[in-house]
Amino acid sequence: MGKVCGSTSSRPSARLARALGLVAPLLLLAAAGCDLQVGDGRKATLTYTDDARSAYEEAMRSYRSKAWEDARALFAEVRKLFPYSRYATLAELRIADVEFEQEKYADAVSAYREFIQNHRTDRDVEYARYRIAKSLFRDIDDTFLLPPQEERDQGTALEAYRELGAFLRDNPRSRYAEDVRKMHDAVQGRLMRHELYVARFYLRQDVYPATIARIDHALKLFPGSALEPEALVLKGETLMRMNKPDEARVVFKKVLDEYGGPFAVTAKRFLSELDAQKAANKQGT
What sections of the protein cross the membrane (predicted)? Predict the structure, then answer.
């Protein structure tokens, strides 16, 4: 060899040490600009791209075997030693994937967003945005140890809803669109249930204007939700309690005409009550 390349002082795990043992010659040659001499006197130079590919593939072997810390360290080496290669960009994205696979969703979101910031025109920006949305979705904790989901803070759910909606608007034909749409519908349902929970709380307190305002806010904020008929029936019931039968009738008829299903049955029952009350009022006059 034309040059003697230095060694590192890090103390990796046994698995990582073996991996670095395979790629170290490539990494060290690339870092120091070493040339390789062959027996016939001709000089063979390890190409930058080939070195980067070899180092990246070695990191991917650790990634696929779920040796997350080893993979993270090897991807970091690729970024450090081959910063101008495509593989450095891929390694940056894979480091975010490592966070995601370890269920460190907040860290994953930060890493994916940093990737997008650094590579705005990269073809993998769509993938990074998808993973941000999925990370936020998975970060919505529904464990049985916590209060019912409608009673919890909805900050993460709302952030996920916005991110999922933005992805669908910007990438309607994406290969990830179907999965994103399912997550979007699930989060929308959760947020709508929360709004209805709050509305029912106001209703139990006989604070009717606040009940109506909360329902209207939910219908405006989450259009197309599967819980719309339930929200409308609740609104109609509140209007009845406010002694606004004509407005309540309009709401119940909307449920009958546009939705059907079990809440249409409830709406029909309320309409029958309104008709009976109207007939009783006429008899009394």
Answer: none
User: In sequence order, what are the residues at sequence separation of 6 or more whose Cβ sits closer than 8 angstroms to the Cβ of residue 144?
Assistant: none
CATH topology of domain 103-224: 1.25.40
* Intra-chain end-to-end CA distance of the chain, in Å: 110
Strand 43-44, strand 36-37: pairing:
antiparallel
The answer to whether 88 and 56 have CB atoms below 8 angstroms apart is no
Give pLDDT tens digits for 141-179: 654 334 455 555 678 899 999 999 999 999 999 999 999
The CA radius of gyration of the chain, in Å to the nearest whole number, is: 30
**Count of other CB atoms within 10 angstroms of residue 267:** 27
What's the whole-model pTM score? 0.76
CA 30 – CA 85 distance, rounded (Å): 12
CA angle centred on 174, ends 169 and 177, rounded to 5°? 70
Phi, psi torsion values for 83, nearest 5 degrees: -65, -20
Q: Which two tokens stand for residue 266?
A: 């409830």
